[in-house]
Amino acid sequence: MKDQQMITLPHLTNDVVRQAKKTKLCAYSVALEGWRRGLNLKWYTKDSEHFQDMVIFGVNPPGRLFSLSSGEHTHYFFRTRGDKVTNEAVEIGSDKDETKRYLLNQDVPCPIGKLFNGEHSDEDVVQQASEEIQYPLVIKPVDGSLGNGVITNIRNDEELYHALNYVRSELGYQDIIAERYITGEEYRVYVIEDQVVAAYNRVPANVVGDGEHTIEQLINRKNKERRKNARLHSCLIEVDIEITEFIEKAGYNYDSIPEEGELIYLREKTNVSSGGDPIDVTDTIPTEIKEVAVKSLKAVPGLYHGGVDIIYDENTGIPPVVIELNPTAQIGGILYPSEGKARDIPKAIVDYYFPETKGIDTSKSKVYFDLNAVLEPLTDRSAVEVEVSDAPDGKLYARKYTLKGRVRRNSFHQWMKEQAQSLGLHGYVQRSLKDEVEVVVAGTSREKVREFRELLNNPPKKVKIRQIESDRYEDPIKIGFEIDEPYNPKSFKSLGSAIYNMERELHKSQKRKDKLEKEIDKIVNSTSWRTTGRIRYVSNRVKGTIKSR
């Protein structure tokens, strides 16, 4: 498994989803799939009337609420959860104690546990949990998420008091659940009705020794790799008290140098958001886990799709145990796993809500839209909903032209943008630091692309094109047309000089202002100013009277 490479989805490359971070990634991937199929796409703020009756949370800044429409119907989505999932199901899934009650009613295996609210003192929790549930234990907030406040493998009273102080006093979660700690592999399984769409093994944050680098250095090296992953770049291994205490218990510190091939776990909990590794196991997961996952979803009325968290150790003979349901599950971990094959959950979700579009294959689509630009009216609160322009319909033809010569004039780049837009083409102009520019144009009409190329034979005056190189363009295409400027050290130097000069002028202005204020104070506080006050008052009254006439 460790030698396995990640196989990404060709239509969801890092470039395509670069602007979609964390839970925005979930929403954007589903919205993009529907948009590419020709569905009408709109984005909303939480103030939209369409979401007043839907359970939503964490929707600011915008980018988590959207709708997809066909000619027949419209569905509204919060991240990966669509409006077929009922509010009642969401509320049950968000309450861990209530979830367990529904699961046990349908004979779904769950860990033995007990709810403790804010009226229970820490002493009450320790006494009852140690006697009725017994060690080792897990404690978790009733309404926590992303692994926040989950403390596992608590082995005695001292560790339980320490965990309670952290969860209740430092994190502020008063209502908690204490459960029997279950050993085994932990899985996130995504289910849509009777079908397991994807599954991945959630491995706790870890590093592998090479006999040369310290644990701290290995963490930094691993984070460098995680930054290259569209999902994991926002889930770096953050060094904190939890990691410090965990590795110290194992006899290590940050300066320890593990031997080559030695696996060092950094945390007990497995959440990807806290540095865990998502490893795809969709094709190899035991049948028992799939059956329990489907049964778990059916145990909650109105929960037609979502994530199921399961612990299973096939060596014990104990059936898979469900530890949590996620009606609004994040899917980034399976779209961009650390190892294995990415699974197209967005396709499965859109298939479920718009079965009439199942025949439309977007796996080769390279077109996408600028998420930040689309969301700007929502972000600055000038609108509560925005509609995305339709995706180009049909096969996309794209060419890259490298123009050499006297081609760096801004007016020329603007001219190329206008020509491309008039032909209905998408792409960009990329300024180079040399005497050349790169131009990419794409559209569903091969003739329009050729027409743009012909226009380059007659550029505006003062533009001299010595050579045009033409190549096929295979990378994703963002709709619209942009003029992009690369990093230019000289420009930044000039900009720095300009800022310096402005600061000098501001400093001079401030000195002049201070001097003027001193002169004014001197006049106002002078004897002559005070003694002529009555004269100025009468004079102003007279001027006002004359002006009114």
Q: What is the structure about, briefly put?
A:
The chain is of the alpha+beta class and 549 residues long. 35% of the residues lie in helices and 23% in strands.
Would you mind describing this structure in some detail?
Helix 1 (23-36) crosses helix 10 and helix 4 (122-133) crosses helix 5. The chain is α+β, with helices and mostly antiparallel strands. A five-stranded antiparallel beta sheet has the order 5-4-3-2-19. 35% of the residues lie in helices and 23% in strands. Strand 3 and strand 4 (74-78) form a beta hairpin. The protein contains 16 helices and 25 strands.
N- and C-termini, Cα separation:
94 Å
Number of helices: 16
Write down the Rg. 31 Å
Identify low-pLDDT runs.
487-496, 527-531, 534-549
The overall average pLDDT, rounded, is: 88
Helix content: 25-40%
Strand portion: 15-25%
Largest sheet data: 5 strands, antiparallel
DSSP strand tally:
25
Strand order of the largest sheet: 5-4-3-2-19
Instruction: Tell me, briefly, the overall form.
Output: globular
Structural class: alpha+beta
